[in-house]
Structure formats: C-alpha cells, structure tokens
Amino acid sequence: RCLSIDNNNVSNISTQTFQGLKELRFLDLSQNHISSLLQFTFSALAKLLNLYLTNNFISTISDTAFYGLANLEYLDLSGNLLSDFPVMAIKLLPSAHIVILSNNKISDLGSFDSSAFMIYLYIDNNNVSNISTQTFRGLTELLDLDLSQNYISSLRQSTFSALSKLLSLYLTNNFISYISDTAFYGLANLEYLNLSGNLLSDFPMMAIKLLPSDKLYLVMFRVNKISQIPTDILTLRPSTSYDFQGNPLSCTAELVNRGDTNENR
What's phi and psi for 144, nearest 5 deg? Predict the structure, then answer.
C-alpha cells in the first residue's frame, strides 16, 4: 500500500504508470526529474491518501492531472518550478485537507472559489505580490495559512474576510508597508498573527482593533521599522501579547519589556 520512488531519475509519468496499483495509499515521487503532470496521471489511484512530489522540476500541471484522487488528504508540491497556483487541478481533490506549495515560483494565486476542503495551505517562499478579497473567498474551512517569504507589499481591505475559521496567519518576511484598517475583517477565530520581517513603520492600530477575534493571543511584529507604540496598546486587547523585538523603538520601558517577554508566552 506504500510506494516510495524518491531520489531517482524518473522524468516521465502518465496514466499507464500506476495502473494496477488500486490499493495504494502512499506514493512518494520526490527528488526526481518530473517536469509536468499530464491529464489523468493518477486516475487509477482512487484510494491514495498521501502524494509527495517535492523537489522535482514540475512547471506545468494539467487541469485533470489529479482526476480520480477522491480520497487524497495530503498533497506536497513544494520545491518545484510552478509559476501559477494550479487552482483548477486542485479543485478535483475534494478531500485534500493539506496542500503544500512552498518553495516554488508562484506569482499568481488566482481565486480559490471552490476549495472549501482545504484546512492547511502553505504557499511560503514564492513570488506572490498581490492578494485581494477574491483570492481566498472559497477557503471557508481553512485553519492555517502561510504566505511568508513572498513579495506582498500591502494588505487591502477585507483581504481575509472569507477566512472566518482561520487560527494562524503567517505573513513574515514580505515587504508589507501598508495595512488597511479592515484588512483582517472576518478573522473571527484568529489566534496567532505573524507580521515579522516586514516594512511597517507604524503600528496598525485600527487593523488590530477591528480584528473581530476575541481569541487572539499573540501578534508578532519583530524586525519591522516601528519606532512608536501607542500608549493605549495595553488596553486595546488586554488578552493579546505583542512582540516588537528588532524594531527601532522609542517608547516607555513598560512597553519595551512587554514586547521582549512575549516570545515566552
């Protein structure tokens, strides 16, 4: 039920490749030389649960490449050469709760309008520069979203409004210098927000204030360009901690100490 062909010289797979493996649950094709996924490549693997395609040279994925993978729960496409998010292909994976596309060259995310099955989505270390309200509108069940190490420069109004169940949002090491007051509107259950390693010069007071979650316990602002912290930050969200380490702060010792101790929370 498990087949590992990782770290070989496989360059071509097709519909015929996996015929006869109908009971397969785990398939690892990582670290090969696969450059494309053709139509119906995995159509015989109806019972497959985990598919690893990491560290290949995949740049194109047919819209029907994953047709037939009705039970797939985990898909790892990290470390490839994808420039566009394969939205249409992934729509055919109704059980894919974990989708990993880290370390690609993705610049266009398209619109996740029929992707309610996703729970964990990782698109860190890509070339994403633009996200909007439409981008995540279909990810209504998402709990964890990682957009770290991209080229995002601003968070516009209602960008994450569809993600009412999201618990963790990672936006570290981007180029964010502007956050709309309503950027986090809709994040009713958010617990953790990481904005470290960006270009923020001001604390986004209204954006944090209008974030609707009463479960938010930690917001990371490490290594930005923030010099002033509002004096009423301690009453803004009494149950929320903030980490401002690595910023050029000029504020009261009380606030600095609060920022310095948050990492141990």
Answer: -140, 125
pLDDT score at 252: 52
Hey, what's the torsion of the CAs at 163, 169, 175, 179, to 10 degrees? 50
Cα 152 to Cα 47: distance, rounded to the nearest angstrom: 38
Q: What is the CATH number of domain 1-106?
A: 3.80.10.10
Tens-place pLDDT, residues 106-136: 999 988 887 788 999 999 999 999 999 999 9
Evaluate whether 165 touches 142 at the Cβ level (below 8 Å): yes
Specify whether the CB–CB gap between 177 and 152 falls below 8 A. Answer: no
| Domain 123-265 belongs in CATH node 3.20.20.100 | no
- Which ranges of the chain would DSSP assign to H, the alpha helix? 87-90, 205-209, 233-236, 253-261
Q: Strands across the sheet with 2-4, in order? A: 2-4, 26-28, 50-52, 74-76, 98-100, 120-122, 144-146, 168-170, 192-194, 218-220, 241-243
pLDDT in tens, 141-182: 999 999 999 999 999 999 999 999 999 999 999 999 999 999
Residue spans in the chain of domains classed CATH 3.80.10.10: 1-106, 123-265
